[in-house]
User: Fold this.
Amino acid sequence: MINMLKKKDFDLFLFIFQASDRVQHMFWRLIDETHPAYDREKAEKYGDAILKVYQKMDEILGEVMPFVDEHTTLFVISDHGFHSFRKAVNLNTWLVKNGYMILSSEKGKEYKLEDLFGKGEFWPNVDWQRTKAYALGLGCIYMNVKGREIYGIVKPGDEYNGLKKEIVTKLKNLRDPVTGKKVIVDVYKREDIYQGEYLKEAPDLVVGFNEGYRVSWQTALGGIPHEIIVENKSNWSGDHCSLDPSITKGIFLSNKKSTRESASIIDIAPTVLEIFNLPIPEEMDGKPIRFWVAN
Assistant:
């Protein structure tokens, strides 16, 4: 994808390559011998797929470099890293087994993507008038708040805050029963990571998983399977969604030396605006990245 913004004598070219993302999602199982979906025969044939894509990206960058002079600012950006997705974590199942979600029936049901389109029911057999929390999406947990959810029972204020604190503490202590490994790096309260006028629309808690673990597809679809942690045997074997940001950092490369040691993805937009001498909206997150100027 190529986008171009032109202002006076300056041009902005934006190139987006999705292949490096897609290839890691599907082929990570062939570079991780501990992955449940690892296949030695396929690994011998396709195990270099990820490497080849990155080599192609490097080749493309090499073609661009001759056109970069001292008046040109070049960024190479990845908004996230990648991890092996060996095991899936069913957050709704965890909520059921810890008493935060109450079922009228113990029968778990698995969902398919088709259930998103009016053919199924999210959170089957949930007794909402006794349920305190539910999970949906990629690592998001919501309290069943009175006055906010249609069948909410958790009172805003002390009860709400106490429930969040309790769930955070228990989730951070979750360990894989097979390996003993810590499953979750951290759990974030929305007020600690988000800000702005739409804060109330954000999930109450956001779960950051450890290397090798990811929120299950069933959680994203509102499903409640029997087990909390299950092996991921699908081809979709590498991921970044719901992995803790502290261990899933992307990269930022530039032809100019930054005056700061590190930058964030949220700094890119204000940096581009400043380069073009355009105003930076006050509500915009991030700060412009500035660069050393050679004397």
